Amino acid sequence: MAQLQNDVFLRALLRQPTPYTPIWIMRQAGRYLPEYNKTRSQAGSFLSLCKNPDLATEVTLQPLARFNLDAAILFSDILTIPDAMGLGLYFADGEGPKFERPLREEKQIQLLSAIEPEDQLKYVTDAVRSIKSALADRLPLIGFSGSPFTLACYMIEGKGGTDFHRVKKMAYERPDLFNKILQVTSASVIAYLNAQISAGADAVMIFDTWGGSLTSKAFKQFSQNNLTQICSSLTREVDGTVIPRVVFTKGGGQWLESLAETGADALGLDWSTDIATARSRVGDRVGLQGNMDPAILLTNPDVIQKEVGEILMGFGEGSGHVFNLGHGVSQFTPPENVLALVEAVHDQSPRYHR
Amino acid sequence: MAQLQNDVFLRALLRQPTPYTPIWIMRQAGRYLPEYNKTRSQAGSFLSLCKNPDLATEVTLQPLARFNLDAAILFSDILTIPDAMGLGLYFADGEGPKFERPLREEKQIQLLSAIEPEDQLKYVTDAVRSIKSALADRLPLIGFSGSPFTLACYMIEGKGGTDFHRVKKMAYERPDLFNKILQVTSASVIAYLNAQISAGADAVMIFDTWGGSLTSKAFKQFSQNNLTQICSSLTREVDGTVIPRVVFTKGGGQWLESLAETGADALGLDWSTDIATARSRVGDRVGLQGNMDPAILLTNPDVIQKEVGEILMGFGEGSGHVFNLGHGVSQFTPPENVLALVEAVHDQSPRYHR
Question: Based on CB atoms within 10 Å of each CB, which residue in A139, A214, A324, B293 is the most buried?
């Protein structure tokens, strides 16, 4: 593995000294960029874009050409695994992801089996290899997956963002069935992330988008256990270089102490958690990634610079902070505000790293 | 004011000794009850039901006829205030509440003025008087309002449940305008809740449904300040009897210590917060109301009884707990499960009140 020209992001995740606070942005290759929309319309759809390694490479690199970001992230979707399992991922216009064949019958669940990524999701590992080649060791590449609980939510409900009543009814009444889904998806996530690491990913992130919909107790039982299992099964080093893991449970601010026990090197924070409080709670055990409210990017550079200053001051001195939003960037974000954000983080952060 | 036959709910809110843990259920008069659906279809719509004091009385009493609940809650909507301000509340089929004329122009905002409840929302105070008369002092009646921030969310976005980007853009870029909306709605909420108290409400609850969408800092600035202002301006006693106030910020589990400073007698908890942890954080200062996941009511009496046992044990011995769900009851709940819940709370709780 060649030395990366900029590994500030990886070192910050591992709480090693860095000259400044690195930044990347969730959904940085997305609809707020005109060049992304152009490529996407050439591809025909979001899914075609994900499934075409050349185009996925093109859009992964687009934000890096505009902004001085400290990491690239694989362009893909969190729901590739259930799609590979045959549930039929699709995107209705103006709505989130959906499945054509959600899990409604016990028989469907008993027939589920873990995916083999280099076979069923080769378009993803091909994209990782292609992006790594295009990056030419300039920046680290982040691989990612949805968490088993979050995947199970979509697989059972057929869509996201609901009250997850079907999911919870199954979890509470038929924990045997629900655990079967979680076990198969956990095994798949492990194989999938390890395949991304083998293909060249320098760090991996697990998006537990819906974990925050659970009670504290159910979260430990139905999401955290699987996150821990995954972290303990991921490739730790490649050629002597540690592959850091980031776990992000949206709405999980109350459970940071527990999440710090999963084996994650760093935790993603949504914007509802005060970063100073978060660091005092877990900052001696894990790095923190976040956590500006994406709505700030809809304002103007003055407001952005002030907010960046408050988040950097909130985290305080020393390493262990990767700047990011608390959720994906909005499609209505003016790209010049992203430029202002990246510059503000790079301009203001060196004073905290002396 | 005549003595209530059952004031266990009011005493629990004030952390006074009670023989058992009282229970009521958010949205207890709702679509899971066939008799409610019948009355609602007679009324023609949800809003017609709210605006007809006789029918509002009828549906308020329906769950009390079925279940041994410890409080009644006024049947109404949290958005009556902006409707009275002229924004045009309506309900599209299968969707949440919406406004025909959301606040989009500065001029609209400058023209807003506080409502006069006995004039513009007389149908609500009439309903309170009618329900009080029908209850004949058997049980306490809860009055309620949306919080100023939550009302502002609907007023600006025109609907709920979004990412509130319009709201936040205004809050961050034009705090003067946003505060104007908050001030007018705060003054309205104070007048509205005091009018409900004058009409006979024995306790009041403020629903801060969307406060959890804010950052910690923005929550204090744009929601908590107004909650504090409201609590300090509410009628404290009627004929020597204290009128307790409950503040419920959904998604506000990280801010309980701050919320305990608002002047609320009790805090509502959603299901994401562990009630044992919540009590250890704030239980010597306020009562707690909650917090079973509504999805538990979709299962069966065995699961319900077990979950009730865990929540009661979580709160532990002594007074200060009102059992409730962590959010409104689902329309898909079998009424017999609500019966099992109410019985489980009354059966299992006396051991914690010796």
Answer: A214
Q: Tell me whether residue A70 is one of the annotated catalytic residues.
A: no
Q: Give the gap in angstroms from C-alpha B283 to the nearest C-alpha of chain A.
A: 17
Query: B164 with A330: CB under 8 angstroms?
Result: no
* The two structure tokens encoding residue B334: 């079998």
Residues forming a β-bridge with B245: B204
**Nearest Cα to Cα of residue B164 among A260, A10, A295, A292:** A295
Among all residues of B, which ones are annotated catalytic? 27, 31, 40, 77, 154
Give the residue from chain A lying closest to B278, CA to CA: A254
**For residue A201, which of A292, A117, A259 has the smallest C-alpha distance?**
A117
CA distance A184 to A167: 16
Nearest to B71 by CA among B124, B7, B17: B7
Cross-chain residue pair A295–B251, CB shorter than 8 Å:
no
- What count of other Cβ atoms lies within 10 Å of the Cβ of residue B1? 11
Establish whether A129 is a catalytic residue: no
* Phi/psi-derived region of residue A162, left when phi > 0, alpha when psi is between -120 and 50, beta in every other case: beta
Chain B positions touching chain A (beta carbons under 8 Å)? 163-165, 168-169, 172-173, 212-218, 251, 253-254, 271-274, 277, 293-296, 298-300, 303, 310, 330, 332
Count the neighbouring beta carbons within 10 Å of the beta carbon of residue A26. Answer: 20
d(CA A294, CA A292): 6
Partners of residue A293 in chain B, C-beta under 8 Å: 168, 214-215, 218
Shortest Cα distance, chain B CAs vs residue A161, angstroms: 10
Digit-coded pLDDT (tens) for B164-186: 999 999 999 999 999 999 999 99
- When the candidates are 3.40.190.10, 3.40.50.720, 3.20.20.210, 3.60.21.10, the CATH number that belongs to B8-353 is 3.20.20.210
Write down the catalytic residue from A15, A27, A245, A279: A27
- Residue A31: active-site member: yes
Pairwise CA distance, residues A200 & B19, whole Å: 64
Q: Residue A293 is nearest to which of B168, B299, B300, comparing CB atoms?
A: B168
Question: Is the Cβ pair B168, A214 closer than 8 Å?
Answer: no
Per-chain mean pLDDT for chain A: 97
Tens-digit pLDDT profile for residues A278-328: 999 998 899 999 999 999 999 999 999 999 999 999 999 999 999 999 999
Q: Do B217 and A172 touch (CB under 8 A)?
A: no
Cα distance between residue A244 and residue A2, in whole Å: 17
Residue of A167, A170, A172, A224 to mutate, testing the B interface (most B Cβ within 10 Å of its Cβ)? A172
Tell me the helices (H) and strands (E) count for chain B, helix number first: 17, 11
Q: What are the pLDDT digits (tens) for B14-54?
A: 999 999 999 999 999 999 999 999 999 999 999 999 999 99
What pLDDT, on a 0 to 100 scale, did the predictor assign at position B2?
64
Across the interface, whether the CB atoms of A163 and B294 are under 8 A apart is answered yes
DSSP labels for A24-85? --TT-SSTTSHHHHHHHHHHSSHHHHHH-HHHHHHHHHHHHHHS--S-EE----TTHHHHHT
Can you tell me whether residue B256 is helix, strand or coil? helix
ipTM beyond cut 0.90: yes
Q: Do B90 and B98 meet the contact criterion of CB atoms below 8 Å apart?
A: yes
- Catalytic hit among A7, A77, A83, A208: A77
* Structure tokens belonging to residue A118: 């280099």
